[in-house]
């Protein structure tokens, strides 16, 4: 079975997690933030060590480990009754992170829309990431050099995913607006899907 999915897409700090958390409390939406799944790993587990190694440098965790962890998470949340694939729309944030991952998930995801949260202001993104580091105690968000590397990695590796899904599915949303306005724009489009 393919999972009906909506992708929240954008650079680090664009607001994907903020929007995903809100969408995730709406009936028939299930939010999965891949970064949160990684951050919830035990630091002394093999995959936890891999995550720390890559995220501390602003790089993406290798594709095979990312997809394996994501699949385990989805299977577990389905088994315990948090995610109901027959009725819920999966709201994905942070996966797929590159075209190779999108290919690996081609037969798993039925992507009905990609909400591209686009910010015209890199300083705003950096400020949001640094504020999040303090607020959520996210060490991978604290170092300015790591943040800059993450933004470069996004441009180089993640942004091409937009082309993979094609113009008909991609909806650009101004991420520099208030979170409430961004949510209103997403919901206006999501109800049509």
Protein architecture, described:
The protein has 193 residues and is α/β, with parallel strands linked by helices. The chain has one domain: Rossmann fold, CATH 3.40.50.300. Helices cover 49% and strands 17% of the residues. It has nine helices and five strands; from the N terminus they run E-H-E-H-H-H-E-H-E-H-H-H-E-H. A five-stranded parallel beta sheet has the order 2-3-1-4-5. The two termini are 19 Å apart. The model has no long low-confidence stretch (mean pLDDT 90).
Give the helix/strand layout:
Blueprint: E1 3-10, H1 16-23, E2 29-33, H2 34-39, H3 46-55, H4 63-79, E3 89-93, H5 99-104, E4 109-118, H6 122-136, H7 144-158, H8 161-165, E5 170-174, H9 179-190
Parallel strand pairs: 1-3, 1-4, 2-3, 4-5
- Which segments are poorly predicted (pLDDT under 50) over 5 or more consecutive residues? none
Radius of gyration: 16 Å
CATH superfamily membership: P-loop containing nucleotide triphosphate hydrolases
In helices, the fraction of residues equals: 40-55%
Q: Roughly what fraction of the amino acids lie in strands?
A: 15-25%
Q: Summarize the main sheet.
A: 5 strands, parallel
User: Would you count the extended β strands for me?
Assistant: 5
Task: Enumerate how many helices there are, as a single number.
Answer: 9
CATH class: Alpha Beta
């Amino acid at each position: 079975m393919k999972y009906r999915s909506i992708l929240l897409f954008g650079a680090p700090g664009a607001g994907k997690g903020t929007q995903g958390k809100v969408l995730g409390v709406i009936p028939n939406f299930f939010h999965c933030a891949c970064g949160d799944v990684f951050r919830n790993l035990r630091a002394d587990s093999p995959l936890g060590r891999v995550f720390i190694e890559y995220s501390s440098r602003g790089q993406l965790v290798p594709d095979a480990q990312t997809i394996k962890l994501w699949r385990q998470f989805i299977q577990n949340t389905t088994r315990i009754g948090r995610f109901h694939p027959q009725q819920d729309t999966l709201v994905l944030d942070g996966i797929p992170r590159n075209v190779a991952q999108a290919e690996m998930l081609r037969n798993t995801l039925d992507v009905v829309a990609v909400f591209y949260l686009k910010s015209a202001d890199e300083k705003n993104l950096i400020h949001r990431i640094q504020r999040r580091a303090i607020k959520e105690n996210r060490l991978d968000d604290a170092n300015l050099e790591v943040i800059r590397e993450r933004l470069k990695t996004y441009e180089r590796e993640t942004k091409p995913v937009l082309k993979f899904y094609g113009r008909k599915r991609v909806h650009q949303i101004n991420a520099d607006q208030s979170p409430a306005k961004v949510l209103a724009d997403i919901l206006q489009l999501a109800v049509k899907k």
